[in-house]
From TrEMBL:
The lineage of its organism: Eukaryota, Viridiplantae, Streptophyta, Charophyceae, Charales. This is Tyrosinase copper-binding domain-containing protein. Gene3D superfamilies: Di-copper center containing domain from catechol oxidase. SUPFAM superfamilies: Di-copper centre-containing domain (SSF48056). Keywords: Copper, Metal-binding, Oxidoreductase. Belongs to the tyrosinase family. It comes from Chara braunii. Residues 143-160, 280-291 form the Tyrosinase copper-binding domain.
Length: 576
């Protein structure tokens, strides 16, 4: 018996020793991985030899095993404008050259499937970085975080250089489909011809439906919220890895255009499925416009500065990704390499009319007015102690595709609240009819502790770590309703904030967690003056997209708040 106990003790000790060795060997690696996911260190770029087993999209490994070379600016490439599709496609010469470039790219795919410059290999580049980390890990998923815009800028640059080499013209540039403008919203005609290499048969083939979806995706109100009012890089570009918070340009019109152009039936190829989207040449015209809007956004003023700014963080600027260039050379490129498009990437954008964009003078006047409104609100806020939260939902919000109302509460008095039937056919339409209900809604104890609120604070509604599940593209419209008594009757005014769009990726998770923040001060306008005596309700209007809704939409919002959002210290400036 004693011998058995000794043997058992020896086994336990051996096991502990093995465990200790394993911990000491593996913990540093695990910690480094966590540091990457929480963005404590820059991404070094994926090792193409380490593609995850079973991944549907791995990139070619260099035959000679050489490491990626670092990107260097090629000053011999002339600086040229990327033109709008409306302008460029009027030139038959350009249309022929664009079609020739994609024809050669498709022929290369057929003749040498492993050449990284072929069309299918170019599709795989997007699949690798945009399908939930199925290839090289979650840290190399560039959607729903602050790498979305710079990574796609890199991708467009290398794709453009490959096309230019195929037609032997260093002046060649991609076109951008200016879907944000009424004059450029129509789907580019050159991409419609079935005989052209620009055509993709896996598209929405209902012209009326496509036109309606694109129109809905580019509403003036949504562009206002996602570009004009999103005046901090946290709102426009998104937050670091692990936050699951994409920028509003991504979750708004970008996602919506993808869902509109792709087939309207499962699996929603090509543009409506992240894994396959880049198989359609119009993908690159679409993303060139997204890139242009980043270029436009940086040139807009804020309340305290003449221009907007990118994240200053070293972890963002020095993170790297790898691409094959026009000579099939594996190249490592950092975010900071692509921030100067004219100097480093050798292109600018045609200056087209942005009919949704206020003039600079109008924006400065609106900022001055908003600053006065927010200063008044800060005076109210400073009397409480729940900074930075002003309002919050009392319970989690759930929806299985149904419209839900979420009263925004804080400790205080009771109030009367008016609710009316909702016209779900129109995102801006709001309410109709005349039914009134009375609810006990505590008055809103607004809070603040920072004297910078009036100058720097942005008032946002935050939907934190919400869980969504859907096997098809979907959206939800977001409204905030102000309800108050004017002395004679109860007035209820809905304000459309924006819409969030999502679309799937083959093989990735259908259940995901996201965070989104919408700026609200501009949308509420003069109703901010009613803050202390009004009731406020958030309304979520979900809608599954596609011609055959699958009924799989599920939404859970555990935390809804109205709060102050501050720019990082490096963004703050003294008032002019």
């Amino acid at each position: 018996m004693a011998v058995a106990m000794i043997l058992k003790l020896g086994t336990m000790i051996s096991g502990l020793l093995v465990w200790g060795i394993a911990v000491n060997l593996l913990l540093p690696l695990h910690s480094a991985h966590l540091h990457v996911l929480s963005q404590r260190v820059p991404l070094p770029g994926p090792d193409l030899r380490q593609c995850l087993k079973g991944s549907p999209c791995c990139l070619q490994v260099p035959d000679d095993g050489t490491e990626a070379v670092k990107f260097e600016r090629n000053a011999s490439i002339p600086v040229r404008e990327r033109l709008s599709a409306k302008t460029a496609l009027q030139s038959s010469e350009y249309v022929k050259k664009l079609a020739m470039a994609y024809r050669k790219m498709r022929e290369l795919q057929h003749n040498d499937p492993e050449d990284p410059r072929g069309m299918e290999q170019q599709r795989l580049v997007h699949c690798v970085y945009c399908s939930g980390g199925l290839a090289y890990g979650r840290e190399y998923d560039v959607h729903n975080n602050w790498f979305f815009l710079p990574w796609h800028r890199m991708y467009l640059y290398f794709h453009e250089r490959i096309l230019a080499a195929m037609v032997g013209d260093p002046d060649f540039r991609l076109v951008f489909w200016s879907w944000d403008s009424r004059s450029g919203r129509e789907f580019p005609a050159a991409f419609r011809r079935p005989s052209s290499p620009l055509f993709d048969r896996n598209r929405n083939d209902n012209d009326w439906n496509l036109r309606a979806l694109v129109s809905n995706a580019t509403r003036r109100e949504m562009l206002r919220t996602t570009i004009v009012d999103a005046d901090t890089h946290e709102l426009f570009l998104g937050r670091p890895l692990g936050s699951e918070q994409g920028g509003l340009i991504e979750t708004g019109s970008h996602n919506a255009i993808h869902a509109a152009v792709g087939r309207q039936t499962p699996p929603f190829h090509n543009m409506g499925n992240l894994s396959w989207a880049a198989a359609d040449p119009v993908f690159f015209a679409h993303h060139a416009n997204v890139d242009r809007l980043w270029w436009v956004w940086l040139r807009l003023p804020t309340a305290t500065t003449t221009r907007r700014c990118n994240p200053p963080d070293h972890t963002w600027r020095c993170s790297r990704f790898v691409f094959y260039d026009e000579n099939a050379v594996l190249t490592s490129i950092s975010v900071k390499d692509v921030l100067e498009t004219e100097q480093n990437l050798r292109y600018t954008y045609e200056d087209v009319e942005n009919d949704w964009l206020p003039s600079r003078e109008q924006m400065i006047r609106r900022y001055a007015e908003r600053r006065r409104n927010i200063a008044s609100l800060w005076e109210i806020s400073s009397r409480a102690s729940t900074w930075p939260t002003l309002l919050r939902a009392a319970t989690a919000v759930r929806s299985s595709g149904n419209i839900v109302d979420c009263p925004l509460l804080a400790l205080g008095r009771g109030n009367r609240q008016r609710t009316e039937p909702f016209d779900s056919e129109s995102p801006q339409g709001g309410y109709r009819g005349d039914s009134t209900t009375t609810t006990r809604t505590p008055a809103h104890a607004c809070s603040a502790t920072s004297e910078h609120a009036a100058a720097y604070g942005t008032l946002v509604v935050s939907l934190d770590s919400f869980h969504l599940s859907c096997q098809s593209p979907f959206l939800f419209h977001v409204y905030i309703t102000c309800t108050y008594w004017n002395g004679e009757e109860t007035i209820s005014r809905p304000h459309y904030l924006s819409s969030l769009y999502s679309f799937p990726a083959s093989g990735s998770r259908t259940r995901v967690t996201r965070t989104v923040q919408f700026p609200i001060a501009e949308a509420l306008g003069s109703d901010l003056d009613l803050w202390e005596r009004a009731n406020w309700t958030l309304r979520i209007v979900p809608q599954e997209l596609g011609t055959e809704p699958m009924g799989t939409l599920s939404l859970l919002l555990p935390s809804v708040r109205v709060e102050w959002l501050y720019p990082t210290i490096t963004q703050r400036r003294e008032r002019p």
